[in-house]
Amino acid sequence: MAGRESPLLSPMISGDEAFHHSDNKERENRNGFESVLHLQDPRTENNPYLDLISTSFQERATFISHGNTARLAEDHGELNLAQICGTIASDEKLHETAYTKVVEKLFEVDPHYTVLAFANMMRKKITMPAHLIYDGRDDNLFEHFSAVARRLGVYTAKDYADILEFLVSRWKVGELAGLSGEGNKAQDFVCTLAPKIRQAR
Ligand SMILES: [Fe+2]
């Protein structure tokens, strides 16, 4: 429904300046801040559409990564750790189910803005809430953590593409009809992105 105003969405298609700014600010704050974990800035602009889509993605990512960690732990005889990670994985699956249901409803009542939000979020790339994790010493702690996770197969670019494909199918994005030109572009973008991510690996 092109041209319709959504009171929730006026800042949504506004570009990336806002989160770059807050990213810099977070980094500046680290110097004088003793926190071990600093979990902020998911790049969702305080916009509920972006937030719910991003969280759906993250919940599935944590479901997958904890499941993979559980398997690794089991392979190495760490059965307690395997059980803990397995329990967390099933919890994350429940979170994924809850959030994806909410977004499913958004697609039902507001397909135009929801598909724009999905495309917007994927253009920015989904960052995990822990990407600003800090231990007081390593300025690149999350990058190092991510590199290890990739190397071990705990969470890889293939998982990222798989999650995107799962969500596209879960929300039946390819079947949305009656979108505006802008909505159709957003739909094409998200529906064709996963293979591109896999090729770029
Ligand atoms: Fe969760």
From TrEMBL:
SUPFAM superfamilies: Ferritin-like. GO terms for molecular function: metal ion binding; stearoyl-[ACP] desaturase activity. Gene3D superfamilies: Ribonucleotide Reductase, subunit A. Residues 17-29 have a biased composition (Basic and acidic residues). Binds 2 Fe(2+) ions per subunit. Its main location: plastid. Its cofactor is Fe(2+). It is found in: Plastid, Chloroplast. Keywords: Chloroplast, Fatty acid biosynthesis, Fatty acid metabolism, Iron, Lipid biosynthesis, Lipid metabolism, Metal-binding, Oxidoreductase, Plastid, Transit peptide. It is an enzyme of class 1 (oxidoreductase). Its EC number is 1.14.19.-. Pfam families: FA_desaturase_2. Residues 1-29 are annotated as: Disordered. One of its GO terms (cellular component) is chloroplast stroma. Homodimer. Introduction of a cis double bond between carbons of the acyl chain. This is Acyl-[acyl-carrier-protein] desaturase. The lineage of its organism: Eukaryota, Viridiplantae, Streptophyta, Embryophyta, Tracheophyta.
